[in-house]
Each structure stands twice: as structure tokens, then as C-alpha cells.
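For homework, think about our next protein:
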Amino acid sequence: MLKSIYRVDFIYEGQHYAGSLERNKQDNSETRQYLLTNIDLNIPNGTILMLTNKDNVEMPWMIYYLENIKASGYNRYIVLKMTHILRWTARDGSEQESYAYMYGQEDNMLKNEIRSRSRMDTIYEENLKLSFFVLPANGNLKIDDYFVIGEKPLQEYYRVTGYDIQSTPGVEFVSVDPIYEFDLSAPPEKTEEDNDEDTSGLMEV
């Protein structure tokens, strides 16, 4: 791997490592690739690594899972290139952020991957009418949470409709619906001049 033309250097738990980021022949988009590492390096599913691509651009990649290749002399991880940063407010009021990969109705790459290796008890079901995010497992993301991706004026807004943290340990699959931007500003406070009819609708909202 040190002499590989696909060599990448990365940091994991404060230590520097070398690996080889190689193309998956079934994925021409270079979204899902192989990361070869020393056999003694064990990286949990859902770990985000910052890897530098062939154009010398650093990109976030998530460890999807480790393929079991006996007597290979190295670890071969399936890694997924993160495409978005999700931002949302958790139920406890804390601001949350996570890297994620988004795919929609026309993207069968992950659907086929999940089906090919899912256990009999998996609860993840593909719904072609929804869009999905794949991200590191996060206990702070719940159904009906609202999050934002992108920067203004090109922001998009989504509501969480379901999630699965069982199919692939360490990885979370989140189904979402696109929605309009929420007005998260505080409602105006009632003054002495206001009567109940003036503020009743605001209080109900």
C-alpha cells in the first residue's frame, strides 16, 4: 500500500496511517470505493475519515463495512463518499451536525448493496417515493426532526419520516420528505394593548 498509485494518507484516533483508495468496478460514480489498510487496523462502521483524492482535494468518507477476505494480508473496507452536511436541532435543544450521503429514487446502488448483505431480521425497507440519507449512527435524530442542508440561497429543507440503525451496525439510514423552510423565530410576546383574539392564533401555532 505504501507504493500503491492509489495511496492515501489519513488520521485515525490521532495516528497517521497509509492506505489505498481503490475503485469499485460496480460503481462508476466513484461514490462507493474500497479502502485497503493494514490488517491490524480495525476501524468501526460509521467512522468518518478525511481522505485526499487524486485531485489533491480532501473529502470525507464513511467506513460502511469491512469485507471478510480471509488470508488477504490486508483489510478491505467499503467506504462511502459523504455528499452533504446535515444540520438540525435535537429534542434537548442542542445543535447537531453530521456528514451524510444522499440518494433518491433513481439511485439503486445502495439498495442493491443493502439487499445483498442484509440479514433476515433487517427492518430497512426501500421506498422509491422517498429520498434517503446514509450517515453515521446518531441517537439524536428522531422522526419529525427538521434539518437543513447547504448554504443560502441554495439551502434545502427536510423532515425525517423514518430511520434504521439495525441493518448495518454503526450506520444509519434515514428517510426524508422535502418540505418548505420552517420559521423557527420566536412568536411575538403579548403586550398590554393586545387582546386574546390578537394572539390566540399565534399561541396555537
Observations:
- Residues 118-124 have pLDDT under 50 and may be disordered.
- The chain has two domains: 7-81, 84-178.
